[in-house]
Amino acid sequence: MLVTIAFGVIYGLFLMRLLHFIGATLVFVFAFIVAFEWDIRKPFAAQWKVPVFAAVISVATTAGVFAAFQYLFLVNLP
Question: One digit per residue, pLDDT tens: the chain, 78 residues?
Fold first, then answer.
């Protein structure tokens, strides 16, 4: 739970100030997925799908959230 809170604080206080919504959300979702799916006991060769999966999901999530707010709710994101 503390890791989730830390990710949220980093996203809200740092990433959103440094990057546009799209960039901050891409980084946040990617890092969140990798942090919780990565198994440090396994070699990288056995886990190469984790960052690929995280990249695909982060792009899809960011695009979906951006499209929903921009075109469905008519809210301009920062």
Answer: 999 999 999 999 999 999 999 999 999 999 999 999 999 899 888 899 999 999 999 999 999 999 999 999 999 887
* SS3 track for 2-41: HHHHHHHHHHHHHHHHHCCHHHHHHHHHHHHHHHHHCCCC
What does R_g of the chain's alpha carbons equal in angstroms? 14
Cβ-based burial of 24 (10 A; exposed 0-12, middle 13-18, buried ≥19): buried
Q: Which residues contact 69 (CB under 8 A, 6 or more apart)?
A: 75, 77
pTM above 0.70, yes or no: yes
Residue ranges of domains in the chain:
2-72
